């Protein structure tokens, strides 16, 4: 029986609109930024919510694990997520 | 007899029996930013300190010593960090302290409402092999949110004892201290590693340990397990340590590279992520075992409610500017009158000394050099005090990070950080507290950059001179010119920040990964002690430099004295007096036996003579002061370097005022007064009312000064050499002399360049 499978939509954190829940797939950064993000818990499988964007959409604020954190768009673009 | 002697123990032997507890027990406090570390520190030591809501508040090392029964405890407050990787200044400080000083126990302060991320740091300390206790802080808040932590169970799983605390209320501090001492004295062992990275990582880890052990000196110095994990993570600091200190460095590094490669292949993920993932996975498992979350509790998320307004796209910006305006008003409307009072108080002492002590170099030195210098330090004190009152409040509530969030995009265009706005805005009032407030910037590059451009703002001390000159030379559009110069300060600062970022800090992207802590009500004690500490450290550290610089400038403008000046003054004033008396006598003789109307004329003539005489005496005195100034080292220097300022259109007299302006920019007005031979009383008036006073008239009458070179001069004053108090603050905040030196060099260069451009192009286009 054919079952329609919704294609998995992989976007970056920067593409989300406020209140969108997400699950991290991968962090594509390098060096210090990557290290920072990993330590703060940006690991594959971690879930979070996009909270809001500042004027001009940069920076953004998200909720991850159990705290709020802000990122610049440049960093958010390096985080691959899937919408939940 | 001999028997008695053996019974009596020699004192030396008895000393060896003293309990171990006599020695000093060193306790280090660590934890994430915003976990309430400082409040635990205060609760434990009884010493009040700032309760930070803001990363970087405790960059400076703070310690306290206290007696606890028969033990001496030494507490050290480590900077707040999220991890122990060696990227930020704070992390390196914390990590190196633990590695080098080997504290007897670490108290890791943990935010109970944010357990997983906080435990990440905790486990890294355990990996370093230091005895550790976890303080589950803000446990009351966690309970309210329905997070029930079984600290005994958590301790059993992780191999670390945990104690629930509420730092702000001092709850659990006794139990925490007792547990810490038990750990420090080996009653409770925390050395056993419970964290398991999984079979694959552990096998690589064991290979690395084996090769690390090939140098016994190295593996004795550093915890080998920790070193192996750090090599798997490709930690730059650990790699450096191996490179420089391990006997078989090349082999170790090659093995580490192989291990990382293997991990990458096996997991299909880079090694850093794999290690962190395993660590978080382990923590997640432990938390699931020891923490019960009551999902029936649905608390109102106040932070989210407040943020909906405060971080609103448009409203947020307006609220930010509103709050900044309030802080600015608070600082300067409350601070300035107090500053004036302090100023007047010192002026009072100065006149008292002038009246009661004989003339001479010593008296002048005390009055102008010492008291002037001390006054120069304390004048800023109220402003610093009020500013930090406002800023500490913002920090402790958690708003500061929001302000940075709102402003970041705009500031980032110029290579600055969202937090750079506050130091720059404060500098439009006074650069001293402005520079001091830059410590809210965590990243050292952002901090240096912000401090380097903040003094370009039009501060309160530059206002009187620029207002006076615009009123004099641009009477028709004084306000336009004044505000144009004011905005020029901002534009120049932002543009230079962009240039410095591209030229000096090239390619160094500092991540903007900033936690937005939950809003919290600050404690009054926390805010007040923070304010006091900052203000007092300004007086202590900046004070010495300001005093020294004030003495040097005084010396430059006072020496060498004209040797015969005193005699000349006396001779000439005696001449004047004799002339006056003889004139008076002649007048009296002509009106010897006058009738009533003649008596009136007599009195009138007498008054005229008297006024003429006092005018002449004043003129004489001011002429001599002017001569003395031009004869002084400062005056000679100004005349010597005058050619360098020809392109800007300045004569040596303007240069002297610029030299004196290093003590404080407002001094430029009074030294102009001296040069134009205006008595001290008239200068006082000058500062109070900018309209219709002699200095203005004299400047206007002087053919040397035109609109063009005065405009160049005003721009020069805006940009050039920050005052000595600012320089002292820069040295204090950045630690090295190279920063104030660079600041002096570049501001002078840019000031000269812009003044020259304005003057030369102005002349070219015939603007006069």
Describe the protein in words.
The complex is a heterodimer of chains A (84) and B (768). Chain A is α+β, with helices and mostly antiparallel strands. Chain A has one domain (13-83): SH3 type barrels (Roll). Chain A is built from two helices and six strands. A six-stranded antiparallel sheet of chain A has the order 1-6-2-3-4-5. In chain A, strand 4 and strand 5 form a beta hairpin. Chain A starts with 9 loop residues before the first strand and ends with a strand. With 768 residues, chain B is mainly alpha-helical. Among the domains of chain B are: 22-184, P-loop containing nucleotide triphosphate hydrolases (Rossmann fold, 3-Layer(aba) Sandwich); 199-268; 315-457 and 483-507 and 516-552, no CATH class; 561-625. Chain B is built from 35 helices and nine strands. Chain B has a six-stranded mixed sheet with strand order 2-3-1-4-5-7, with helices on both faces. Chain B is elongated, with a radius of gyration of 34 Å. Chain B starts with a helix and ends with a helix. Mean pLDDT of chain B is 83; it is low at 1-19, 50-58 and 678-693. Chain A binds chain B through residues 27, 32-41, 43-44, 51-56, 58-59, 61, 65-72, 74-75, and chain B through 82-83, 85, 87, 113-117, 120, 269, 272-273, 276-277, 280, 303-304, 307, 311, 313-314, 316-317, 401, 405-406, 408-409, 412, 418, 509-518.
């Amino acid at each position: 029986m054919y079952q329609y499978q919704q294609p998995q939509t992989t976007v970056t954190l920067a593409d989300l609109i406020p209140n969108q829940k997400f699950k991290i797939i991968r962090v594509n950064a390098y060096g210090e930024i990557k290290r920072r993000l990993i330590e703060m818990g940006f690991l594959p499988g971690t879930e979070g919510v996009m909270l809001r964007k500042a004027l001009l959409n940069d920076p953004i604020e998200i909720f991850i694990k159990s705290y709020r954190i802000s990122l610049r768009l440049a960093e958010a673009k390096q985080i691959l997520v899937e919408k939940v | 007899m001999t028997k008695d002697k053996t019974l009596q123990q020699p004192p030396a032997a008895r000393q060896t029996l003293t309990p171990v507890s006599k020695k000093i027990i060193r306790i280090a406090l660590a934890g994430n930013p915003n976990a309430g570390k400082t409040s635990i520190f205060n609760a434990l030591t009884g010493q009040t300190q700032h309760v930070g809501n803001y990363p970087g508040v405790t960059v400076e090392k703070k310690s306290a010593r206290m007696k606890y029964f028969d033990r001496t405890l030494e507490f050290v407050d480590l900077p707040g960090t999220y991890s122990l990787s060696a990227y930020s200044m704070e992390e390196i400080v914390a990590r190196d302290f633990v590695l080098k000083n080997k504290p007897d126990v670490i108290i890791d302060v943990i935010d109970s409402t944010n357990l997983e991320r906080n435990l990440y740091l905790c486990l890294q300390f355990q990996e370093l092999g230091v005895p550790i206790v976890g303080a589950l802080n803000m446990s009351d808040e966690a309970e309210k949110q329905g997070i029930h932590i079984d600290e005994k169970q958590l301790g059993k799983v992780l191999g670390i004892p945990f104690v629930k605390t509420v730092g702000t209320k001092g709850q659990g501090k006794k139990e925490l201290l007792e547990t810490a001492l038990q750990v420090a004295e080996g009653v409770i062992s925390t050395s056993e590693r419970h964290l398991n990275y999984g079979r694959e990582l552990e096998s690589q880890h064991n290979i690395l340990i084996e090769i690390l052990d090939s140098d016994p000196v190295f593996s004795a110095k550093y915890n080998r397990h920790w070193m192996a994990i750090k090599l798997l993570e490709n930690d730059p600091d650990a790699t450096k340590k191996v490179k420089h200190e391990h006997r078989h460095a090349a082999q170790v590094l090659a093995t580490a590279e192989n291990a990382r490669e293997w991990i990458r292949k096996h997991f299909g993920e880079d090694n850093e992520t794999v290690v962190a993932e395993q660590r978080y996975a382990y923590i997640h498992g432990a938390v699931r075992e020891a923490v019960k979350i009551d999902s029936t509790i649905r608390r109102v998320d106040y932070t989210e409610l407040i943020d909906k307004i405060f971080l609103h796209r448009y409203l947020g910006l307006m609220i930010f500017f509103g709050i900044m305006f309030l802080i600015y008003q608070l600082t300067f409307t409350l601070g300035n009158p107090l500053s004036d009072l302090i100023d007047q108080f010192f002026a009072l002492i100065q006149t008292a000394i002038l009246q009661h002590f004989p003339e001479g170099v010593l008296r002048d030195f005390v009055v102008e050099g010492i008291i002037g210098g001390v006054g120069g330090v304390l004048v800023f004190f109220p402003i610093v005090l009020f500013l930090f009152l406002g800023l500490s409040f913002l920090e402790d509530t958690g708003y500061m990070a929001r302000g940075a969030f709102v402003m970041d995009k705009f500031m980032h265009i110029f290579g600055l950080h969202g937090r750079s706005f506050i130091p720059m805005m404060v500098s439009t009032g006074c650069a001293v507290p402005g520079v001091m407030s830059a410590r809210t910037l965590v990243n050292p590059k952002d901090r240096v950059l912000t401090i380097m451009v903040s003094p370009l703002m039009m501060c309160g001390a530059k206002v009187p001179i620029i207002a006076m000159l615009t009123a004099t030379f641009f009477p028709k559009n004084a306000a336009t010119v004044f505000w144009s110069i004011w905005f020029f300060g901002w534009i120049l600062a932002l543009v230079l920040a962009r240039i410095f970022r591209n030229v000096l800090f090239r390619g160094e992207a500092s991540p903007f990964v900033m936690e937005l802590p939950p809003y919290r009500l600050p404690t009054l004690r926390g805010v007040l002690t923070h304010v006091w500490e900052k203000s007092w450290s300004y007086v202590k550290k900046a004070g010495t430099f300001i005093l020294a610089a004030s003495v040097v400038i005084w010396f430059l403008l006072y020496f060498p004295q004209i040797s015969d000046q005193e005699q000349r003054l006396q001779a000439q004033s005696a001449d004047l007096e004799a002339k006056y008396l003889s004139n008076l006598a002649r007048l009296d003789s002509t009106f010897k036996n006058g009738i009533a109307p003649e008596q009136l004329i007599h009195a009138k003539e007498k008054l005229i003579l008297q006024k003429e005489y006092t005018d002449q005496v004043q003129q004489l005195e001011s002429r001599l002061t002017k001569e003395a100034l031009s004869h002084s080292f400062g005056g000679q220097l100004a005349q010597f370097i005058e050619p360098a300022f020809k392109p800007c259109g300045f004569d040596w007299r303007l240069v002297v005022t610029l030299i004196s302006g290093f003590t404080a920019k407002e001094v430029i007005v009074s030294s102009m007064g001296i040069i134009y031979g205006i008595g001290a009383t008239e200068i006082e008036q000058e500062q109070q009312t900018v309209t219709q006073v002699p200095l203005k008239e004299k400047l206007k009458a002087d053919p040397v000064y035109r609109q063009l070179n005065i405009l160049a001069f005003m721009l020069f004053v805006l940009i050039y050499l920050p005052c000595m108090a600012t320089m002292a603050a820069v040295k204090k905040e950045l630690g090295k002399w190279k920063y104030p030196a660079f600041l002096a060099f570049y501001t002078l260069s840019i000031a000269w360049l812009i003044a020259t451009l304005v003057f030369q192009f102005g002349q070219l286009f015939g603007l006069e």
